[in-house]
Amino acid sequence: MKIVKEKEISFKDDKIVVIKLVNKNNLEIKFSNYGATLLSILVPDKEGEKIDITIGRNNIEDYLENHDLPEKYYFGCTVGRFANRIAKGQFAIAGKVFLLSQNEGKNHLHGGFKGLHKVTWDYKINEDQNEIMFSYLSPDGDEGYPGNFKIELSVSLNDLNEIRFKYKATTDKATPVSLTNHAYFNLNGGKSSILNHRIHINSDFFLENDKYGIPTGKLIPVAKTNYDFSIAKNLSDSEIMQNEGYDKCYVLNKLERRFEFAGSIREINNPISLEVYTSEPSLQLYTANAFDGSFKGKNGVLYSKFHGVCMEAQRFPDSPNHNNFPSSILYPGEVYEQETIYKIQF
Questions:
Q1: What is the number of helices (H) and of strands (E) in the chain?
Q2: How sure is the predictor about 46, in pLDDT bands with cuts at 50, 70 and 90?
Q3: How many whole angstroms separate alpha carbon 150 and alpha carbon 225?
Q4: At residue 210, does pLDDT exceed 80?
Q5: Which pLDDT score is estimated for 274?
Q6: For the chain, what is the domain count?
Q7: What's the distance, CA 88 to chain centroid?
Q8: Is the dihedral of CA 161, 178, 264, 62 positive or negative?
Q9: Which residues, at least 6 apart from 37, have a Cβ–Cβ distance to it below 8 Å?
Q10: Which of 97, 168, 190, 247 is most buried per CB count within 10 Å?
């Protein structure tokens, strides 16, 4: 195994780095401390060439060039304090109402305008474990959230082809927390859409949403619906992919804190596959519905609708506003912990 700092550049008085991790199977991943972002996953094919199974911006300079613009795609970054949506950008704890930034219409999405995805994280490299330790302190009032919120994120690559994310966080005031990585996968190297991808999700229920993606509070059985991936199926066979695409939160078939299989992605024309394991209670399936062909991504490819697929392990969206959802509130003296693995097979 090998871990090296591949690049370092100065940006707004910060040092932005790109760190490369490689295992014995020649699987290679790259991260940056800007947004604790997964930049690429390079998988060797039969000819020895490497295929990048994530889509995104060409290089770290492109991320920094867009630093002052509202984020639209969240390529590979760590999102939070609260992943997904909070209705009307507000919630209450012990009767006190907190107002968050509203960066998606009247709603709050992925931690707000800056959140954790447009900040520079501290980092340490652990060569023995092929691991990067990221850390960041989100101050009290950041994007409207209460409490000084300290987060630690360990990312590592082992010889089992597992990319492991381990999150820990503490706070000095009660605050909602849901952290995840927002990588977009395309197992054909981004050459075409994901319609030839086969999806499996270990779930019998999904959360019903309104037209803005906000949960109504109802859990709907997937059986006999177009949202059923409890048995793997090709996206091309789904009527949903003929229209708006997927942006649904699936309730995983597991105890809330138990670490288990959550879902998988396979490409029907090549042997590469990705499995997701997590301690989280839900998985958001998103099929890049907002892409419109105007964004030029890696290798100059224009990303059209359905050019990538996300599987985001997280707490239930808008859970601070639903008493029937598992609690996402972190209190002083407690430790938030989350672990998710992307396991690559090739």
A1: 1, 31
A2: confident
A3: 41
A4: yes
A5: 98
A6: 1
A7: 22
A8: negative
A9: 31, 63, 75, 76, 77, 78, 117
A10: 190
How confident is the model over 253-281, as a mean pLDDT? Answer: 93
Q: Give the active site residue among 71, 143, 275, 312.
A: 312
Domain that holds residue 265: 2-345
Kindly tell me if the per-residue pLDDT of 228 is higher than 80.
yes
> Strand ranges (DSSP E) for 191-345?
197-201, 203-209, 215-221, 233-234, 247-252, 260-267, 273-278, 282-286, 295-296, 302-303, 310-314, 329-330, 336-345
Residue in 21, 23, 313 with CA at minimum distance from that of residue 160:
23
Active site annotation includes 127: no
Which residues lie below 8 Å from residue 127, measured CB to CB, with a gap of 6+?
A: 3
Q: What is the pLDDT of residues 150-171, one digit of tens each?
A: 999 999 999 999 999 999 999 9
* Spatial separation of the C-alpha atoms in residues 126 and 33, rounded to whole Å: 15
Q: Burial level of 288, CB count in 10 A (0-12/13-18/19+)?
A: buried
Q: Two tokens at 292?
A: 């419109």
The verdict on whether 312 is a catalytic residue reads yes
Residue 47 CB contacts under 8 Å (≥ 6 apart), including other chains: none
Of the residues 108, 110, 182, 200, only one is catalytic, namely 182
As beta bridge partners, residue 15 has: 10
What tokens does 75 get? Answer: 């390529």
Q: Are 208 and 218 in contact (CB under 8 A)?
A: yes
Q: What's the pLDDT score for residue 255?
A: 77
Percentage of the chain surpassing pLDDT 90? 96
For residue 66, pLDDT beyond 80: yes
CATH number, residue 100:
2.70.98.10
- CA-based nearest residue to 29, from 163, 134, 207: 163
